[in-house]
């Protein structure tokens, strides 16, 4: 390894990975950057390579052949499938938890049991592997209630039930195989009320460093209506997460989690994303993710003033106690442009033209599902396609700039929500 002159491979193809590449590319410590498989945006700063995240030997071979010093694993599935373990076993530094620690996202039951053991505030729950006890438990509860497939279900395995009938139907739906293997087990959870916030912490197995807060908009429609999506927009910071609430979250949720994981022989490395419900009784854990949020990562990267690479490296193989990261106080906001029909069926291959976008150092368009076709034309290649991201003095100003960018995107087959940031903007105006 050449010191301070790293060859880096980012794995993934979403807006999150474009934002990570964009930030890593600015680092004086980055020598050569690869992204696998990448998208039309990462192609501008990294060499896109067609690697399959499930093919661990091929990734190890690629890393050896290209002197890769650090692999940054973007999405959850390869982490849960043990890609970080395979890399570390071959002495290749990996950013992200190994499979045992990634259970925090890979198994909701695992996390609920850990919360019970460590006294971490979260919703009351039951964990089931067969329908009968699940139906019996549900009958003793009140609605609304939340039924969740235990494993990874691409964000779709959570069913919020307003009636008992809906609850019983959800149990059958999951055990009937709606989510495949992910639904071999399920969790029934008390419904929590409050506002949600995303909180990100960088970990090295021992130390934990709070990164920043954000708020995501999961529903497809304005006013937070319609079906859930991977996220239609986000902003950071989430001012509702006051410094007091951050301290309380670290004390009551994050440290007990990391201490318990270390005591179980599963020290957590990488970014830990806590989905929080800010209830009247204080912050409670909704769920953990073992990676950056998408699109939350995009707003975090726009606000991060420090070099990201030493922090990723320290989390992967070192010690974070000397790492400091500075965040611009100015908020950032991102609007997701999605293909018409998303999160249902949508067309791929429609033409996107970004030539009319004005130059502004506070405006960055991250690509998610895009690719450049054989003629050099940018086309849509997924559900969530572009993340129009802007910084401003206020969330309202960042919103205005982001929507000005959206208006300049020539893509008739795409749409976006018109109200990203509404909660915060309402607060700013009172
Ligand atoms: P997830 O896919 O696990 O992020 O969950 C999707 C969404 O379901 C969360 O962002 C919450 O809005 C909601 N949710 C999950 N669990 C609960 C709960 N126990 N109480 C209320 N809402 C919940
Ligand atoms: N934006 C939600 C997620 O990344 O899970």
Query: CATH fold name of the largest domain, please?
Result: D-amino Acid Aminotransferase, Chain A, domain 1
- Backbone shape: globular
Oligomer designation: single chain
Q: Radius of gyration from the CA trace?
A: 21 Å
- Quick one: how many beta strands? 22
Low-confidence stretches: none
Name the bound molecules.
Answer: adenosine monophosphate, glycine
Average pLDDT, to the nearest integer?
Answer: 95
Give me the CATH superfamily of the largest domain: ATP-grasp fold, B domain
Task: Tell me the count of domains.
Answer: 4
CATH class call of the largest domain: Alpha Beta
List the topology elements.
Blueprint: E1 6-12, H1 15-25, E2 30-37, E3 47-48, H2 56-65, E4 70-73, H3 76-80, H4 83-89, E5 93-95, H5 99-106, H6 108-118, E6 125-128, H7 131-139, E7 145-149, E8 158-161, H8 164-175, E9 186-190, E10 195-204, E11 208-216, E12 219-221, E13 225-228, E14 233-236, H9 243-263, E15 269-279, E16 282-289, H10 296-303, H11 309-317, E17 332-339, E18 363-367, E19 370-372, E20 378-380, E21 384-391, H12 395-407, E22 414-415, H13 422-428
Parallel strand pairs: 1-2, 1-4, 2-3, 4-5
Antiparallel strand pairs: 6-9, 7-8, 7-9, 10-11, 10-15, 11-14, 12-13, 14-17, 15-16, 17-21, 17-22, 18-21, 19-20
Helix pairs in contact: 1-10, 6-9, 7-8
The structure holds adenosine monophosphate (AMP) and glycine.
């Amino acid at each position: 390894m050449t010191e301070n002159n790293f060859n880096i491979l980012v794995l993934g193809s979403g807006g999150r990975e474009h934002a990570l590449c964009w930030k890593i590319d600015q680092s004086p410590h980055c020598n050569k950057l690869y992204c696998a498989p990448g998208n039309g945006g990462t192609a501008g700063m990294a060499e896109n390579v067609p690697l399959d995240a499930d093919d661990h030997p091929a990734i190890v071979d690629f890393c050896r052949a290209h002197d890769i010093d650090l692999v940054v694993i973007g999405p959850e599935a390869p982490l849960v499938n043990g890609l970080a373990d395979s890399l570390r076993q071959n002495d290749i530094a990996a950013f992200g938890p190994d499979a045992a620690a990634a259970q925090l996202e890979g198994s909701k039951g695992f996390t609920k049991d850990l919360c019970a053991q460590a006294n971490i505030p979260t919703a009351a729950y039951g964990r089931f592997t067969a329908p009968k006890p699940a139906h019996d438990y549900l009958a003793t509860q009140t609605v609304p209630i939340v039924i969740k497939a235990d494993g990874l279900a691409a964000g779709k395995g959570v069913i919020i039930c307003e009636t008992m009938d809906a609850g019983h139907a959800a149990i059958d739906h999951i055990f009937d195989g709606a989510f495949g293997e992910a639904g071999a087990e399920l969790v029934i959870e008390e419904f929590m009320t409050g506002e949600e916030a995303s909180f990100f912490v960088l970990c090295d197995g021992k130390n934990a460093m709070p990164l920043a807060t954000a708020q995501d908009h999961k529903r497809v429609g304005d006013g937070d209506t319609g079906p859930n999506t991977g996220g239609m927009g986000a902003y950071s910071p989430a001012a509702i997460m006051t410094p007091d609430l951050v301290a309380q979250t670290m004390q009551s949720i994050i440290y007990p989690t990391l201490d318990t994981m270390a005591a179980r022989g599963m020290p957590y490395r990488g970014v830990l994303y806590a989905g929080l419900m800010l209830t009247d009784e204080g912050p409670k854990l909704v769920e953990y993710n073992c990676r950056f949020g998408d699109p939350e990562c995009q707003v975090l990267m726009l606000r991060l003033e420090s070099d990201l690479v030493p922090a990723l490296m320290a989390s992967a193989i070192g010690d974070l106690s000397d790492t400091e990261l500075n965040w611009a106080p100015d908020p950032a906001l991102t609007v997701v442009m999605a293909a018409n029909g998303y999160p249902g069926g949508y067309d791929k291959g429609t033409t996107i033209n970004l030539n009319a976008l004005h130059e502004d150092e506070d405006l960055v368009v991250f690509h998610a599902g895009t690719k450049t076709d054989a003629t050099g034309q940018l086309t849509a290649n997924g559900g969530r396609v572009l993340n129009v991201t802007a910084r401003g003095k206020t969330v309202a100003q960042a919103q205005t700039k982001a929507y000005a960018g959206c208006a300049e995107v020539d893509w008739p087959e795409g749409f976006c929500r018109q109200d990203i940031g509404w909660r915060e903007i309402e607060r700013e105006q009172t």
